[in-house]
């Protein structure tokens, strides 16, 4: 029997894979203690700030005392209505706001909770590798089994939907535009995914956190717009990246009403909803149009081009993509991604995310993010060029 001096963590928590970024955090502390500026390109955390429409709505609604109580029904109703209209305008997908949308306290919350709502103990979920770590961790915390689905460069990092027929999982996670690889999927991919899922009785979760972070003419499709999409799929939409509102903790799930219903019941046992004025700020930005959004995208594109030019000058290869906040690049010289990230930090004061942190199939790559002020990005690109002579072997 365990005594109270033992590790208090439940076995389900102890069983989670360890985080790999501790060694990098240590090197970073050492550099900063030596007075060296570290430019952090390792995480996707928008630095630009929420749109004025969100701030105005938050200030106005903060004075409404009805919204100081447990989230009133009218606020949820208004939010769901705005989200459904946005899905209609953006993807042409018609959804019932009462049954096919549920607000989330950030999409991470919904993604992590989904398996608790739809997966029985021991049931299998297909999870991409490399991937946002929350898919696998949510499945493991729910007592499900993770079956990895490799994303390979020679298939442009698209999941092999043939695996659905082979594995016959209860649930499959996909994420396009993709973190960390920056890959995008077209409607033909979603059509194949939905057909395979219907055939195998599999539920589909598409994480669309980056659907609006797109450059040039690129428009990311929705899994819900292909035939049969709403029969098997839900899609997660986040305010964090789209509207630079990561700290506000707001998102929504949209799609199949059985899955949305299950998630809503689960959530009714765990949280009591978002703060009303934050929901109303969400409504305001969903209705506000896209001018400010285009400005933000132009800024990201400037940064992206600086980094891509820097990589090009260093002879480093990367995945070409019209979307996301990320550049997925190849580690030069056959080194491990961790080793490369360590030396880039040590030699150039640049922090990147080693590919191994996103799964075994991420080995050999590293990820850079454009959510860092433009002058820092410019300095990072310059420093990379200065030290790159040492990488060629
Ligand atoms: C940032 C991110 C999210 C969004 O998380 P929020 O909880 O909405 O802030 C979801 N999925 C992926 C892949 C992400 O990178």
Percentage of helical residues?
Answer: 40-55%
Q: Characterize the biggest β-sheet.
A: 7 strands, mixed
Gyration radius (Cα, Å) is: 21 Å
Ligand inventory reads: pyridoxal-5'-phosphate
The CATH topology of the largest domain: Aspartate Aminotransferase, domain 2
State the distance separating the first and last CA atoms.
Answer: 55 Å
Return residue spans where pLDDT drops below 50 for at least 5 consecutive residues: none
Order of helices and strands: HHEHHEHEHEHEHEHEHEHHHEHEEEH
Q: Tell me the domain tally.
A: 2
Question: How would you describe this protein?
Answer:
This protein has 393 residues and is α/β, with parallel strands linked by helices. The chain folds into 2 domains: 11-49 and 291-387, Aspartate Aminotransferase, domain 1; 52-287, Type I PLP-dependent aspartate aminotransferase-like (Major domain) (Aspartate Aminotransferase, domain 2, 3-Layer(aba) Sandwich), CATH 3.40.640.10. The protein contains 15 helices and 12 strands. The protein has helices spanning 11-14, 22-33, 52-62, 73-91, 107-118, 134-141, 162-167, 187-200, 229-232, 239-242, 257-268, 276-287, 291-314, 337-348, 374-387; strands at 39-40, 101-104, 124-129, 145-150, 171-174, 203-207, 233-238, 251-255, 326-330, 350-351, 353-354, 365-369. The strands form 3 sheets. It has a 7-stranded mixed beta sheet with strand order 2-8-7-6-5-3-4, with helices on both faces. Helix 2 (22-33) runs parallel beside helix 14. The protein is globular, with a radius of gyration of 21 Å. The termini are far apart. The model has no long low-confidence stretch (mean pLDDT 95). Bound molecules: pyridoxal-5'-phosphate. Residues 44, 106-108, 132, 175, 179, 207, 209, 238, 240-241, 246, 251 line the site of pyridoxal-5'-phosphate (PLP).
